Amino acid sequence: MAQLDYIGFGGVRLAAQSYGRDDDFGILLLHGGGQTHTAWDAAALALAQAGRYVISLDLRGHGASEWPGDGRYDLDAYIGDIRAVLATLPARPVIVAVSLGGWIATAVLGESETPLATGLVLVDSPPRMDPAGSGRMGDSLRRAATANGGQWDPRMLDGFDLSAVEDRLIDAARQLKMPTLVVRGERSPLSTQESIAELAACIADVEAVEVGDAGHLVAVDQADAFNALLLDFLERRIPLSPPQYVAGFDSRTLRDALGCFATGVTVVTTLDRDGNPVGLTANSFTSVSLDPPLLLVCLANGAGSLPAFLAASHFVVNVLHIGQQPVSGRFASRTEDRFGQTDCEIWDSGVPVIRHSLASFECARDTVHDAGDHKILVGRVQRVQFEPHRDPLLYFRGKYRRLHFS
Questions:
Q1: Which residues form the Flavin reductase like domain (predicted)?
Q2: Do 122 and 181 have their domain in common?
């Protein structure tokens, strides 16, 4: 084990314990209210022994983490903390969380524009808790507050209002896209089968399990059963061994692996034999040579506009900026009036140039090469224009992205 320190929202210092080798696949553990990272001790050891690198975090105001001077224990403060921790990790982890930690994880992952985790395990964390059980638990924590030995800040009890964020958490759950396991203890005083079913119904890729003879603290009450469930889920849905492509098999894996290379997005334009403009969206684009000035784009053999590009003497590559995602979508679809809805200008070759692009390259066709199910179109650059104050539209793993500045 090793002690880790992070800086969370508002400069609050966060402490964590790590287990296992830091080059193994990552797991982030988030405890519940009035607990510390020690609630996960058995699970953390089992995960580390199974080849996972575990970070067991003390939430703000809990364990060895700092008590915020301003008393901020609202959902957004917690979200800021977890996003700060995730930003330091070299890869997206699986998050395993219970009650308060689960609500925070749901909001962090569901409200993010980009995937921040590869999987999620929610233990007794439905947004709509059983009112009677929740009230009894709150009373119990308040009675224990004066005798908690400084393990957690009693102000946390009034700082987080679940009822005020129930609908927000439900909306966040509907946006979760990663494999998710929902776990409930059969004797939990906080959740019901109905509340767990409501949560599971919101999540696209979900498995739900109830553990017998366990209460709210499933990972403690039935440690062996919980660890077996957790490891089974991880091995099936987020395995340690990465998917592999072997020549001639599993083209989906090959495509997914190629999608790990983040690219810009371009719209390539030209004129057909009748002088009509044609264009398509492409991300297979690269520079080839500065002397002579050459670049290339790869066009699919099945593209309807391919014959026009093969016959044309000139073409233009327009590199799109972040505000031009609608342009990319337009030229990737079969919209009839692509150019009528796009602001263009004409340069020397007569080929349409999309105005305000991040960069535009007007090229004379140099060579064409057959390459499997694509044609490689090499162009000799004749004129260039670029905009130095905009950010690029990016494409990664099948989705549009934007630059993140740390």
A1: 258-402
A2: yes
